[in-house]
């Protein structure tokens, strides 16, 4: 990032400490993973959901999976009034397995933070000042940053002495050139309200880009990639020589591809129209475009597996939803092909990208002239490993690379801790 913040961590944990706790705090949930960065092993993972819901029926649920795997999975219910109580429950479950937060083996906590604005282009050690800056970004990320901030505050209260690092979803996209990041709207208005394209899912795009380069046997600086993160949220990015040069999400994660419940690109005038003609409030339109659109709005289902089943049964609405989803995807592949000029690989990741052979096949169908095709046999293989699904000697590779945002957050967090140990916590 710019400014004079620490880019390396002060050495607060002993040199033998290699564990990183990754926290992803949502408004009513906390997802966590404990990783050992000596070898990348996952020691435990879990989820607390429905935080803040009262006693009785809608009480919180916690699922904790120790590294022994699903067999050792533990669940507990009961009210969890706030994030502090949620983290306390996480700490108890970890302590139960001898992995408590007070362990000297814990080197740092890495927090997922959705919006880092233009200021944070790299993982950053959290200080009071950094936290204040993340708070200043709340107006551009009102749905996401407040929950991340709560998670950070709670974790800092629990272990004030421990290095805590913020890893931003937007960071990977800060390399976008101004002509890709700026909307063509009045410059003064845009700047006054920090309206520009920030991009999201950056942690995944960064992780997948590096792994895809590895799969191609090249350094990240040697390859141009179109990365398609297709989960419940979905985004595409154009990556030139390891750096993002364009991405489909914008000021918020609403722009771009068709998603599970979000519309992606629409004419902004749809909003005025609904306001003026349908009498909908701004909040109504917000809910419509973010929660009641995309695949769910088109056919009532947001799970691609269910949509696939319905298509096989001849369901026309599911077919149309699939076709709209794929058409948008294809338009972005074409656009980013043009942006990059030369493409080494189109890379599919996240729930749909990793698992849906029909989506991958349909997204590149008819693009043979661009050197793009899938091999039906390879595309049908199910695997957790990064793999090529294009025919041998294809001009442009088509790859499937499973994403792992928690591992990426842990790696970025631990890299700061390690740099701090080497340099004693230099200021940048
Ligand atoms: P994510 O947000 O990355 O966890 O992705 C979640 C989405 O992945 C779900 O909503 C499904 O649409 C999709 N998904 C998961 N498994 C499959 C599968 N086997 N086939 C097709 N889509 C899948």
From TrEMBL:
Mg(2+). Can also accept Mn(2+). It holds the Pfam family Acetate_kinase. Pathway: Metabolic intermediate biosynthesis; acetyl-CoA biosynthesis; acetyl-CoA from acetate: step 1/2. Mg(2+) binds at residues 24, 405. Substrate binds at residue 112. The record marks 201, 262 as: Transition state stabilizer. ATP binds at residues 31, 229-233, 303-305, 351-355. Catalyzes the formation of acetyl phosphate from acetate and ATP. Can also catalyze the reverse reaction. This is Acetate kinase. It comes from Streptomyces pacificus. The gene is ackA.
